[in-house]
User: Which sequence fits this backbone?
């Protein structure tokens, strides 16, 4: 029978699971961190359900030749191991999309630009897609150019923000703007 966490980083090689503890007597640390008096290994092992818990040696035998052990929940140990093995999510590699209509209201534009600023400050890339809505009103070329100008002004207000790719499309039709900001970590 192999140790359940033989290749685990959570339980180091210095720690032994209940079946590999070689001492007759052990001292157990409870959940509060207080050290209980010495008990026989057999009585400690019979005091808990070995299907749900491990007795783990947390320190080598002391001057009285008794190792210090702790009873750990198997499920919590597995969850902690999984959490350690998952890499931290890097949001700087994600791209957020903001969709706007050419006839967008000033308040709606302000809200979308606020969201764009938040995303850029988090280090995310932002794609701003401007398109004609099916039931929206038609805009003139001057209104379309003014909207693009306003968006570029708001981009310039975000520290370190710039277009990382040229704007694609034709104002008044469908336009995609690609924006990113360098964030200091």
Assistant:
């Amino acid at each position: 029978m192999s140790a359940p966490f033989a290749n685990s980083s959570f339980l180091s090689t210095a720690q032994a699971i209940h079946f590999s503890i070689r001492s007759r007597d052990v001292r157990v640390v409870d959940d509060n961190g207080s050290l209980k008096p010495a008990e026989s290994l057999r009585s400690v092992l019979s005091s808990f359900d070995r299907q749900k818990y491990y007795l783990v040696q947390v320190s080598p035998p002391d001057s009285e030749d008794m190792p210090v052990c702790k009873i750990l929940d198997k499920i919590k140990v597995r969850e902690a191991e999984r959490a350690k093995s998952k890499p931290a999510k890097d949001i700087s590699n994600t791209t957020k999309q903001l969709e706007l209509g050419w006839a967008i209201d000033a308040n709606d534009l302000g809200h979308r630009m606020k969201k764009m600023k938040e995303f850029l400050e988090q280090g995310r890339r932002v794609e701003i897609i401007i398109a004609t809505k099916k039931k929206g009103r038609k805009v003139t070329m001057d209104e379309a150019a003014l909207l693009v100008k306003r968006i570029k002004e708001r981009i310039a207000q975000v520290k370190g923000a710039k277009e990382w790719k040229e704007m694609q499309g034709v104002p008044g039709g469908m336009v995609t703007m690609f924006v990113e900001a360098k964030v200091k970590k």
Remarks:
- The chain has four helices and eight strands.
- Confidence is low (pLDDT under 50) at residues 1-10.
- The two ends are 47 Å apart (CA to CA).
- The first strand starts at residue 25 and ends at 29.
